[in-house]
Design a protein that fits this description.
The chain has an eight-stranded mixed β-sheet with strand order 2-1-3-4-5-6-9-10. A four-stranded parallel β-sheet has the order 11-12-13-14, with helices on both faces. It has a two-stranded antiparallel ribbon with strand order 7-8. The protein has about 325 residues and is of the alpha/beta class. Helix 3 runs parallel beside helix 8. Helices cover about 25% and strands about 20% of the residues. The protein is built from nine helices and 14 strands. It folds into two domains: about 210 residues, L-asparaginase, N-terminal domain (Rossmann fold, 3-Layer(aba) Sandwich), CATH 3.40.50.1170; about 110 residues, Rossmann fold, CATH 3.40.50.40. Bound molecules: succinic acid. Succinic acid binds next to loops. Succinic acid (SIN) binds next to loops.
């Protein structure tokens, strides 16, 4: 391809840390390393081919292991992306992130960024110092997707292991494999290989410019409680005592819960707490009035959102002032 450098797209790369920026003392180690220690300039220098994909503006937003991601940092990141995408000289954004909470950050950005320009997240399962590190190719592919015209208007995307996923559907499914990300119900949107970006389908539910949400400054307290054999009501009662505004159930099967938890949630709802039923299963959907009587209990079904994404959506809805079950159900059916 004979591309003059000054016609290349201009992309911002925002680094937040993660294993993609991780380093171990020994190249044979793929666990037991420190995440988030390599700066964005070094990450970019390691992939000279990036120079023929885009003109790059780089920023270090954070240097964390993504297990320590916070809503406050989400607010900073979402606002910075909006500010960059509002500039005429930025055509898209790539965010480097840890894999552990990538799906939560991606979904939050999908619902709050206000631009049709591409936003692509990427990460790595192996630290930058590892034999066969996956970060460099994931980064190259993420920039390739962000530089492509097809990525515009598709909401926030994840480029990982040659696949392109939607932020709404993607989830981490392996603790060690380099194909760690899947979109269990809907499948990937497409693929990227050797500079070729190929979308097989588009995103249907509203996002970015069509989303009613803006990123909050103050985040309501929303926590997740799982149902399992012998679960007690102690976590629900403790959360209600602590002033929680919403609880997401990581339920068994189709979002079911033990009788003990059902009573605890009924009491919590009576005290004004919003309760959303999702499933701990990892795929499938939670049907309204399916495994629990939502109409009678006052609960909301999460549909195909996993507990962690359901929590993000519930936080955004509560921050927007929607806390009644019908209003929340509309939101979960829309997004
Ligand atoms: C992290 O999420 O920051 C550490 C793990 C990873 O990136 O794979």
């Amino acid at each position: 391809m004979n591309t003059s450098l000054d016609t290349l797209p201009r992309l911002a790369v925002l680094a937040t840390g993660g294993t993609i920026a991780g380093q171990a003392g020994d190249a044979s180690r793929t666990a037991g390393y420190k995440a988030g220690v390599v700066g964005v300039d070094k990450l970019l220098e390691a992939v000279p081919a990036l120079g023929s994909v885009a003109r790059i503006h780089a920023e270090q937003i954070a240097s964390i292991d993504s297990k320590d991601m916070t809503p406050a940092l989400w607010t900073t990141l979402s606002r910075r992306i909006d500010a960059l995408l509002a500039q005429d000289d930025i055509d898209g954004v790539v965010v480097t992130h840890g894999t552990d909470t990538l799906e939560e950050t991606a979904y939050l950005l999908h619902l709050t960024v206000k631009s049709a320009k591409p936003v692509v997240l990427t990460a790595a399962m192996r630290p930058s110092s590892a034999l066969s590190a996956d970060g460099p190719l994931n980064l190259l592919n993420a920039l390739t997707v962000a530089a492509s015209r097809q990525a515009a208007g598709q909401g926030v995307l994840i480029a990982f292991n040659n696949l392109i996923h939607s932020a709404r559907e993607v989830t981490k499914t392996s603790t060690y494999a380099v194909d760690a990300f899947r979109s269990p119900e809907a499948g990937a949107l497409g693929f990227v290989q050797d500079g070729r970006v190929d979308f097989q389908r588009t995103v249907v539910r509203p996002h970015t410019l069509a989303s009613e949400f803006t990123v909050p400054q103050d985040w309501p307290m929303v926590e997740i409680v799982a149902s399992y054999a012998g679960v007690s009501r102690v976590p629900v009662d403790a959360l209600v005592g602590a002033g929680v505004k919403g609880i997401v159930l990581a339920g068994t099967g189709n979002g079911s819960m033990s009788s003990t938890l059902a009573q605890a949630f009924a009491d919590a709802i009576g005290r004004g707490v919003a309760v959303v039923r999702s499933s701990r299963v990892g795929s499938g959907h939670v049907m309204r009035n399916g495994a629990a009587p939502d109409d009678a209990l006052g609960t909301v079904s999460a549909g195909t959102l996993n507990p962690y994404k359901a929590r993000v959506l519930l936080q955004l809805a509560l921050a927007r002032g929607v806390s009644d079950a019908p209003g929340l159900q509309r939101i979960f059916e829309t997004y």
